[in-house]
């Protein structure tokens, strides 16, 4: 049973987004995603300062098994990337919602997240997949 | 639901993540594939390989039959009971129907072929036996497990009877011996020392548990694949298939050209290829930068208009970067580039052999 957190928003493609107190948004992949991928060996995040668009590719996560595109749940400017993943990509497996975050965005329109799934919606999406 | 081995419940109990593999429900890992991989290189790992197909070949014509069926020559095993041979089984066009290991036992032979190729292999083997005094007997009632790693032999000896421990002590590399319905072979698919053990299904779960209790770590098919790839061992359906010549799959060493009068199936086609010179060759690739090479990606080599293709690629847990095997135009060497999702990444061409006995070879 994978961990799905109530305070997060989700894409059916298994990314999560968390709105921080300062209005920025942190993005990563879900516990279910890391479990299906297996041991993560590389993460390619967007570049600092780059613009990402909601629903579009923003990076790649590679596990021993497969490569998987990362889609951004929200548009905006990338204001931080998790550089520690370069040396310790296993954080994505060990702590997908905390230490294993991918990048942070200054959102151009926070209301875009209204289209994303809530925890119950994401749970239903996973079950429909299986 | 797929076929289940006698160890299915043992996998569930050990937290195995089950996937479909050639119609069988098999564990891909029990948590971390990378950790399982390291255990085999440094200590000892345990694999359920009961999905593999075990075929005993008996009868007065067994030797003559296998000398025609296989590209390698079982006559090399004469006077060497227990000795094993790796071989391709070819079609008339010289394509690889399967790769296999054959053991010479007392007057008969044990052949171990792949799981996904079982049906076509058995059909072909039966067809070629027609008119000969040969019996082909599939041993579906046996379980098969592999214990691999530098500590494998030592630990297995602790978990079996004194008589069987003594038998293991006498096994030299690449030999096998049967004993009271069990079969021990000092073979494997990881590049480490170790054993492959055939035993009655009813005994398998308790032996599996005894090995785990003695410190052997259960490993899934994921680790089996990264281990064999580091060891430069081919996987049927990737490095070769019915349309691939063994000469283009780094299997030239397994073809017994002498004696010239031995007319094995596919010989004519291979001799023609040898006269013309092989157009493709199997090489290793190393990517020391970021990224992971994957099967199917195209390879550009210097001095050739034709591109090659990656047949197997992965992240190498032992080396810490990506490695691959690739079929490329013959003669390619030095630097090449691989198309990884639209980016051309620089790779080095090496011999397809990356890690043996825990040591990096590249």
Description:
Chain B: It is an enzyme of class 2 (transferase). Chain B: It catalyses: N(6)-[(R)-S(8)-aminomethyldihydrolipoyl]-L-lysyl-[protein] + (6S)-5,6,7,8-tetrahydrofolate = N(6)-[(R)-dihydrolipoyl]-L-lysyl-[protein] + (6R)-5,10-methylene-5,6,7,8-tetrahydrofolate + NH4(+). Chain B: The glycine cleavage system catalyzes the degradation of glycine. Chain B: Its EC number is 2.1.2.10. The complex is a heterodimer of chains A (130) and B (362). Chain A has 130 residues and is an alpha+beta fold. In chain A, 17% of the residues lie in helices and 32% in strands. Chain A has a single domain, classed as RNA polymerase II/Efflux pump adaptor protein, barrel-sandwich hybrid domain (OB fold (Dihydrolipoamide Acetyltransferase, E2P)). In chain A, a hairpin with a 3-residue loop joins strand 6 and strand 7. Chain A is globular, with a radius of gyration of 13 Å. With 362 residues, chain B is an alpha+beta fold. In chain B, 23% of the residues lie in helices and 32% in strands. In chain B, the strands form 5 sheets. A 6-stranded mixed sheet of chain B has the order 10-11-12-9-3-13. In chain B, a hairpin with a 4-residue loop joins strand 6 and strand 7. Chains A and B meet through strand 4 of A and loops of B.
Mean pLDDT metric of chain A: 96
Structural class determined from secondary elements of chain B: alpha+beta
Helix content of chain B: 10-25%
Describe the largest sheet of chain B.
Answer: 6 strands, mixed
End-to-end gap of chain A: 12 Å
- Look up the CATH topology of the domain at 8-49 and 140-230 in chain B: Gyrase A, domain 2
* Number of extended strands of chain B: 21
**CATH homologous superfamily identity of the domain at 8-49 and 140-230 in chain B:** Probable tRNA modification gtpase trme, domain 1
**H/E series of chain B:** HEEHEEHEEEHEEHHEEEHEHHEEEEEEEE
Query: Can you count the helices of chain B?
Result: 9
Question: Radius of gyration of chain B in whole Å, from Cα?
Answer: 21 Å
Biggest sheet strand order of chain A reads: 1-2-3-9-8-5
Mean pLDDT of chain B: 96
- How many individual domains of chain A? 1
| SSE string of chain A, helices as H and strands as E | EEEHEEEEEHEH
Reading off the top of the CATH hierarchy, the class of chain A is best stated as Mainly Beta
Domain GCVT N-terminal (chain B): 7-258
Pfam families (chain B): GCV_T (PF01571), GCV_T_C (PF08669)
Protein name (chain B): Aminomethyltransferase
Catalytic activity (chain B): N(6)-[(R)-S(8)-aminomethyldihydrolipoyl]-L-lysyl-[protein] + (6S)-5,6,7,8-tetrahydrofolate = N(6)-[(R)-dihydrolipoyl]-L-lysyl-[protein] + (6R)-5,10-methylene-5,6,7,8-tetrahydrofolate + NH4(+)
């Amino acid at each position: 049973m994978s961990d799905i957190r109530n305070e997060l928003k989700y894409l059916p493609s298994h990314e999560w987004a968390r709105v921080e107190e300062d209005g920025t948004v942190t993005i990563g992949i879900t516990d279910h995603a890391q479990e299906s991928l297996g041991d993560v060996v590389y993460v390619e995040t967007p570049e600092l300062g780059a613009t990402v668009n909601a629903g579009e590719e923003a990076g790649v996560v590679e596990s021993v098994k497969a490569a998987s595109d990362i889609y951004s749940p929200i548009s905006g400017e990338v204001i931080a990337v998790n550089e520690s993943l370069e040396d310790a990509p296993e954080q994505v497996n060990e702590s997908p919602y905390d230490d294993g975050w991918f990048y942070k965005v200054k959102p151009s329109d926070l209301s875009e997240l209204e289209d994303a799934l809530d925890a119950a919606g994401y749970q239903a999406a996973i079950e429909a997949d299986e | 639901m797929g076929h289940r081995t006698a160890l299915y419940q043992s996998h569930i109990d050990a937290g195995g993540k089950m996937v479909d593999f050639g119609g069988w429900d098999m564990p891909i890992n029990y948590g971390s594939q990378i950790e399982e991989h390291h255990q085999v290189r440094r200590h000892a790992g345990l694999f359920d390989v009961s999905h593999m197909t075990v075929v005993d070949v008996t009868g007065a014509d067994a030797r003559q039959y296998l000398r025609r069926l296989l590209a390698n020559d079982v006559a090399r095993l004469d006077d060497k009971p227990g000795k094993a041979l790796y071989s391709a089984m070819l079609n008339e066009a010289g394509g690889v129907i399967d790769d296999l290991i054959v053991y010479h036992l007392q007057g008969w032979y044990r052949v171990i072929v792949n799981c996904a190729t079982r049906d076509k292999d058995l059909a072909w083997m039966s067809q070629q036996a027609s008119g000969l005094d040969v019996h082909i007997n599939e041993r579906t009632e046996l379980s098969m497990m592999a214990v691999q790693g530098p500590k494998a032999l030592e630990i297995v000896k602790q978990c079996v009877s004194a008589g069987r421990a003594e038998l293991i002590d006498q096994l030299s590399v690449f030999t096998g011996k049967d004993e009271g319905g069990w079969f021990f072979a000092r073979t494997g698919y990881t590049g480490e020392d170790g054993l492959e053990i055939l035993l009655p299904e009813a005994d398998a779960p308790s032996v599996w548990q005894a090995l785990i209790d003695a410190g052997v770590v259960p490993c899934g098919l994921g680790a089996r694949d990264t281990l064999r790839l580091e060891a430069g061992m081919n996987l049927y359906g990737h490095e070769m298939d019915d349309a691939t010549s063994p000469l283009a799959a780094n299997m030239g060493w397994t073809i017994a050209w002498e004696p010239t009068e031995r007319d094995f199936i596919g010989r004519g086609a291979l001799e023609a290829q040898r006269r013309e010179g092989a157009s493709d060759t199997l090489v290793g690739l190393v990517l020391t930068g970021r990224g992971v090479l994957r099967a199917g990606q195209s390879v550009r080599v210097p001095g050739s208009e034709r591109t090659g293709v990656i047949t197997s690629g992965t992240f190498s847990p032992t080396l810490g970067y990506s490695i691959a095997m690739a079929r490329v135009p013959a003669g390619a060497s030095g630097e090449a580039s691989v198309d990884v999702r639209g980016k051309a990444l620089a790779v080095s061409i090496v011999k397809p052999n990356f890690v043996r006995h825990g040591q990096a070879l590249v």
